[in-house]
Write a structure and sequence with these properties.
Layout lengths: L4 E2 L4 E4 L4 H9 L4 E4 L12 H11 L2 E4 L9 H13 L5 E4 L4 H13 L4 H10 L8 H10 L3
Parallel strand pairs: 2-5, 3-4, 3-5
Antiparallel strand pairs: 1-2
Protein name: TIGR01244 family sulfur transferase
InterPro entries: BLH_phosphatase-like, Prot-tyrosine_phosphatase-like
Pfam family, one: BLH_phosphatase
Length: about 150
């Protein structure tokens, strides 16, 4: 079973999940699962199609927004913003290999919505993640959004 880490009241980040973890997500009230892993990133990952099928069977929405080690793009940030907006305040579980890329993408999406960079960093840190690698981008996005 994967470790779901609470980042804020809506967002959970996790290392790679399994089909069995979808039931745990359902029990927590998760309305959306976000897959941030590219397919075939490693031999031990559960294919996204299997997670998507389990999510659908559980009545949980699913979206894939793969993030490679090459970094983040605005279309990825915008895709997460849209996905989060579609579920309102309902809990969201995002996963990748370690949860880091999911958390960093969340941080960029929050900044693009105008959230305070210091609060974003504190929430990520409370969940066990460090946004230092993207902090400059968080600051820029937040400033552009009027945060």
């Amino acid at each position: 079973m994967s470790q779901f880490r609470q980042i804020d009241s809506q967002f959970l980040a996790s290392p790679q999940i399994t089909v069995a973890d979808v039931a745990t997500a359902k029990a927590l009230g998760v309305a959306l699962i976000v897959n941030n892993r590219p397919e075939d990133e490693s031999d031990d990952q559960t294919p996204g199609a299997e997670i998507a099928a389990a999510a659908q069977a559980a009545g949980i929405a699913y979206v894939a927004i793969p993030v490679t080690h090459a970094g983040f793009s605005m279309p990825q940030v915008e895709a997460l913003q849209q996905a989060l907006a579609q579920v309102g305040d309902a809990p969201v579980l995002a996963y990748c290999r370690s949860g880091t890329r999911s958390t960093l993408l969340w941080a960029l999406a929050q900044a693009a919505n105008g959230a305070n960079p210091f609060e974003i960093a504190a929430k990520a840190a409370a969940g066990g993640y460090d946004i230092t690698p993207i902090r400059a981008q968080v600051d820029i996005l937040s400033a552009r959004a009027g945060g």
